[in-house]
UniProtKB/TrEMBL annotation:
GO terms for cellular component: cytoplasm; prefoldin complex. Gene3D superfamilies: 1.10.287.370. This is Prefoldin subunit 1. The gene is PFDN1. Keywords: Chaperone, Coiled coil. One of its GO terms (molecular function) is protein folding chaperone. Binds specifically to cytosolic chaperonin (c-CPN) and transfers target proteins to it. Binds to nascent polypeptide chain and promotes folding in an environment in which there are many competing pathways for nonnative proteins. Residues 73-111 form a coiled coil. SUPFAM superfamilies: Prefoldin (SSF46579). Belongs to the prefoldin subunit beta family. Heterohexamer of two PFD-alpha type and four PFD-beta type subunits.
Amino acid sequence: MAAPIDLELKKAFSELQVKMIDTQQKVKLADLQIDQLTRVQKHAKLTHTEITTLPDNTRLYEGVGRMFILQSKEEINNQLMDKQKTADEKIKELEQKKVYLERSVKEAEDNIREMLLSRRAQ
């Protein structure tokens, strides 16, 4: 009678191990993406602060591939603000994803603990 329960526990542990490894990889990926987005956000913010100090008649160019396009100060400021907003939204999404992943692993661990406790009670 003990053999089927042991196989069930072994299967549950192997599933948990696979889930933990997968989740850890996803969390690391999310952390890397958050770091990259914070750098993009910081770059856009610094560029925006520098541009605001320039006189309004200054000619500003946007780099596109290997060329530069003349843009108005307002257009560049709008693009930088959009970049900051987009990065901020993506960071929030990634942080929510991380919380969800960590919660799902904790739930799986709790399920296995319950399984162990029920086995010991028998």
